[in-house]
Specification:
There is one protein chain. With 137 residues, this protein is mainly α. It contains 7 helices and 2 strands. The protein has helices at 17-32, 36-44, 48-60, 76-87, 93-110, 115-125, 128-133, and strands spanning 63-65, 68-70. Strands 1-2 form a two-stranded antiparallel sheet. β1 (63-65) and β2 (68-70) form a beta hairpin. The relative contact order is 0.17.
Amino acid sequence: MSVITGGLAGALNPNSREAVKHAIRYYGLVRSMTNDCRRIAQNTGYRKQDIERIKNHVFYEQHELEDGLCTFDPDYEMAQSWQRLIEGVNIQKRDIVLLHHEFLESLYMAEGIKYDEAHEKAQEIYNYAAALREVGR
């Protein structure tokens, strides 16, 4: 079984026990939050409804993936991005790329494009994996 996250971790091994445990806990916390979308909108200038769309896409909705119909697996880097976006402190370029990527990917999927193709199309414009690799440069 492969891990489908919607993101690709950079220097940190996203499959390390610590990273996976943190991501699982944080995704659970995000799913229980009620003010994160408002705070991210305030911290980024995005519309609240667009942040809500991204949150639903990443944290709640089930997608047809190679393992069947399921939510994305928790990802450490995406959890870290979401946390920075909520706090409004030390927001990184990759965090904004994540928002752009997931929003566009959700639009493609709403048009009926399957996840793999929607992800690749979004990556062509907003490449979150590349933004992660730029960390520390």
